[in-house]
């Protein structure tokens, strides 16, 4: 009877350990997915503000049909926030690029903002 109970305790301990590992991995994956979703939403909000900047006359603090002088302040994003590190590059007349290094780790998220849309692209391109 003692051996059976000992084997049962060992089996239960192993099962609880496996369940704990699976739960931790699931929580980490969920955290990363939530971070990516929040970043994409922030980038969508920023693209709308950038399009407003694009349409505004230069005399009113806008770009005058250009993204040339756009800054993080214009799109109301803190460069370093709880979601990750945001940066602007390749600002031209027709588009600019927002690159984000996610706080949860993983691949960078890159979006090219145009006057009428945002396109998410593979960071390798």
Structural notes for this entry:
- Helices cover 43% and strands 19% of the residues.
- The chain is of the alpha+beta class.
- The longest helix has 54 residues, at 2-55.
- The radius of gyration is 23 Å and the shape is rod-shaped.
The helix tally amounts to 1
Tally the beta strands.
4
Strand content: 15-25%
Query: Helicity, in percent?
Result: 40-55%
Protein topology:
Elements: H1 2-55, E1 84-89, E2 95-102, E3 109-114, E4 118-121
Antiparallel strand pairs: 1-2, 2-3, 3-4
Short description:
The protein is α+β, with helices and mostly antiparallel strands and 125 residues long. The chain is 43% helix and 19% strand.
What descriptive keywords fit this protein?
rod-shaped, four-stranded antiparallel beta sheet, 1 helix, single chain, 125 residues, alpha+beta
